[in-house]
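Apologies for my clumsy wording, but could you write out the amino acids of a protein and the tokens describing how it folds?
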Amino acid sequence: MTTPDWTSPEESVAAFLDDYDRLGSGGGLSGVFAATFLALDPQRALALTPQQLAAGLPARRKMFDDAGVTGLRRQSARQQRLDDRHVLVSAEWHAERAAGPLTLASTFLLRQEGDHHEIVVYLNHTDLARLLAERS
């Protein structure tokens, strides 16, 4: 099997990422996830529902606020089309803060559902709690 090349995001994927960024700043991220999705980070792998994700977002926002993160913006994104319904997306965000900037990386497996994409696998490459504690 050959591995597809990374390319710039297709228009629909770029629009999805714009929605992800916009919704994330307002706390409405749960709408971009599948009914059950896999969430991974360096410490764990969990099957979650959007409602479980939403319940954890205030603690994440507090962790960012406590660490002095004042802004988060996407720096880059690329994709690998896997088949007609699935696309792997890798993105980096730049976080501003007084103790120095941070780069946060994530990879999503998106599934096409009708006229929209939804996240079925969310891989956060960074142990956020450790990173923010180390750089405080």
